[in-house]
């Protein structure tokens, strides 16, 4: 466990004590650029000095718009060195959303890095100072490379106090306008140290950073890299992702459930389930085969393989377990800096999100809402005192908005969202989360949204996985019917599914139906489809192809 008070203090320690160790590895055009702690520090100091020349007020907000890359981290360190506050922005947001965050956060400058379509995003940037990174073909405002050629380094660097505002993380917004969650340096340190306490990171830690750094979980992971002097590798593109992950073999690997589903799809495309079952039943060969699969996925050296951000089907976790890949499910949110509950190697119960972590207090409200108190709760929502007051109860516990239950061993199961409940026209309340989780066991399904406002029984809106898309309509209908027949008897009468509607198009970030962290945006889906619920319900077919 580290004794650093801030991420910057940790970086300065490694820069001073291990200057020649490789800190960041950036693949680009088939080559890998390596940044030692010394090289990272030299570039960050120059960018920090340049930011200081802009004569901005103390604690000014500096935005970061970029996919994960070495320069994201260098820029973040530069912002810390200049004693400013970072505003990370999801790199896939459209111009309107970018403008909304930049305006609301009162950002005085923006650093523009690795992006897929900046041309369509740039009109969202108001008239503020811009620094763009030429390595990633960005040419807006002043060039990063030109700055580091002529600018002298910032010399007088003082690590901040634990309590000082470090960053504002805008939530990905499943239900409306994102809120700016304020976190201190100390909050991120507490989060990284809690992870280390429960999982004991190895020396010479290797990380692979690919989930958006605007998301709190990835930010905590990279912060752990700063704290423990890790080597962090990035992916160049979606096409090279699998190859780079395999080459890295990181010690920690975190993915959201949809990524675990995609990995399984890819394996089953190569080895169908029947053939896989035969291989796994052959002694000796099965252990060689499992090792080969783990290495191919990049997980052969992982001490922590985790899933969080959304519920993962128990059947999917058990499927991976047969390959000796132990996925530990955890639970946390932006507001509690990911410190809440986690399964560990010692205490693991599939289907739950684990036991309460160290230094965390938890209680359930009368409605069953999970309420958390830890040492790294948000400082508040930026410019939103009303919402800040609402999210805490009278004892200072954070109201998570999630409902849960503890079993007799102290493991927590998430049972739904407080606000996701809807009422059918029978006047019965439905909690969609459990039904969605049960239905997600079917590998033909990619995404699910259980709905039913204004009709007698709930129906499932789904998109298909690649495996599902490859099936004939007849085989697909049979597979989906089998799932419903196995699920319905386990549900209360008013919860039982009446129809499955297969959507024409996938739900994506581009069409506004998922968040940047791949969660389904229930409100947006309902807005588009609610007018059709009654006509779908009245059709005689059980499986409806939209």
What labels describe this entry?
Rossmann fold, globular, single chain, 546 residues, alpha/beta, 5-stranded mixed β-sheet, 34% helix, 3 domains
Can you give a write-up of this model?
With about 550 residues, the chain is an alpha/beta fold. It has three domains: about 180 residues, Rossmann fold; about 160 residues, 3-Layer(aba) Sandwich (Rossmann fold); about 120 residues, ANL, C-terminal domain (GMP Synthetase, Chain A, domain 3, 2-Layer Sandwich), CATH 3.30.300. The chain has a five-stranded parallel beta sheet, sandwiched between helices. A five-stranded mixed beta sheet has the order 12-13-14-15-16. Helix 2 crosses helix 3. The longest helix has 17 residues. The mean pLDDT is about 95.
Radius of gyration: 24 Å
The largest beta-sheet arranges its strands as 4-3-5-6-7
- Could you name the ranges where pLDDT drops below 50 across 5 or more consecutive residues? none
Helix tally equals: 19
The number of domains is 3
CATH class of the largest domain: Alpha Beta
**Percent range for β-strand residues:** 15-25%
SSE map:
Elements: H1 7-17, E1 22-28, E2 31-36, H2 37-53, E3 61-65, H3 70-81, E4 85-89, H4 95-105, E5 107-112, H5 118-121, E6 129-132, E7 142-143, H6 144-150, E8 165-170, E9 180-184, H7 185-199, E10 206-209, H8 216-227, E11 231-234, H9 241-248, E12 252-255, H10 257-270, H11 273-280, H12 285-297, E13 304-307, H13 314-321, E14 328-331, E15 341-342, E16 355-356, E17 361-364, E18 369-373, E19 380-381, H14 385-391, E20 398-406, E21 412-417, E22 422-423, E23 429-430, H15 432-439, E24 445-451, E25 459-464, H16 466-469, H17 473-487, E26 499-502, H18 522-529, H19 533-538, E27 543-545
Helix pairs in contact: 1-2, 2-3, 7-8
């Amino acid at each position: 466990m580290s004794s650093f008070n801030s991420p910057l203090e940790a970086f300065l320690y490694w820069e001073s004590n291990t200057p020649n160790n490789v800190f960041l590895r950036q693949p680009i055009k088939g080559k890998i650029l390596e940044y030692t702690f010394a090289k990272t520090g030299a570039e960050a100091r120059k960018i920090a000095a340049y930011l200081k020349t802009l004569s901005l007020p103390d604690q000014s907000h500096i935005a970061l718009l970029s996919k994960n890359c070495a320069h994201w981290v260098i820029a973040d360190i530069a912002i810390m060195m200049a004693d400013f506050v970072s505003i990370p922005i999801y790199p896939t947001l459209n111009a309107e959303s970018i403008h909304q965050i930049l305006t609301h956060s009162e950002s005085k400058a923006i650093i523009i890095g690795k992006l897929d379509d900046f041309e369509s995003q740039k009109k969202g940037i108001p008239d503020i100072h811009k620094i763009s990174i030429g390595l990633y073909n960005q040419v807006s405002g002043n060039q990063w490379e030109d700055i580091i050629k002529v600018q002298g380094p910032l010399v007088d660097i003082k690590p901040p106090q634990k309590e000082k505002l470090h960053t504002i993380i805008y939530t990905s917004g499943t239900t409306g306008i994102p809120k700016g969650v304020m976190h201190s340096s100390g909050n991120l340190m507490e989060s990284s140290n809690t992870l280390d306490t429960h999982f004991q990171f190895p020396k010479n830690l290797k990380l692979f950073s690919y989930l958006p750094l605007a998301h709190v979980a990835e930010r905590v992971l990279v912060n752990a890299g700063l704290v423990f002097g890790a080597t962090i590798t990035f992916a160049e593109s979606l096409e090279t992702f699998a190859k780079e992950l395999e080459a890295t073999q990181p010690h920690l690997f975190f993915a959201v459930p949809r990524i675990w589903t995609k990995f399984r799809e890819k394996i089953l495309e190569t080895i169908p389930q029947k053939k896989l079952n035969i291989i796994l039943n052959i002694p000796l060969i099965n252990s060689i085969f499992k090792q080969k699969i783990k290495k191919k996925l990049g997980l052969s050296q992982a001490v922590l393989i985790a899933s969080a951000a959304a519920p993962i089907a128990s059947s999917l976790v058990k499927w991976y377990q047969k390959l000796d890949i132990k996925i530990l499910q955890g639970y946390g949110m932006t507001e509690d800096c990911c410190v809440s509950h986690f399964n560990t190697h010692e205490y693991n119960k599939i289907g739950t999100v684990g036991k309460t972590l160290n230094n965390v207090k938890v209680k359930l409200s009368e409605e069953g809402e999970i309420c958390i108190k830890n040492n790294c709760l948000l400082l508040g929502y930026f410019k939103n005192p009303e919402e800040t007051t609402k999210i805490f109860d009278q004892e200072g516990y954070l109201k998570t908005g999630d409902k849960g239950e503890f079993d007799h061993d102290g493991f927590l199961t998430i049972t739904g969202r407080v606000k996701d409940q809807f009422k059918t026209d029978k006047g019965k309340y439905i909690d969609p989360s459990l039904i969605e989780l049960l239905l997600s066991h079917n590998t033909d399904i990619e995404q699910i949204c259980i709905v039913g406002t204004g009709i007698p029984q709930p129906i499932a809106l789904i998109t298909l996985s690649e495996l599902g898309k490859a099936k004939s309509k007849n085989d697909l209908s049979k597979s989906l019917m089998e799932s419903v027949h196995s699920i319905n008897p386990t549900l209360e009468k008013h919860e039982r599914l009446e129809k499955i509607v297969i959507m024409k198009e996938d739900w994506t970030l581009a069409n506004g139906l998922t968040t940047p962290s791949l969660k389904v945006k229930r409100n947006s889906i309902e807005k588009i489809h609610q007018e059709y619920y009654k006509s779908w319900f009245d059709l005689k077919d059980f499986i409806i192809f939209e």
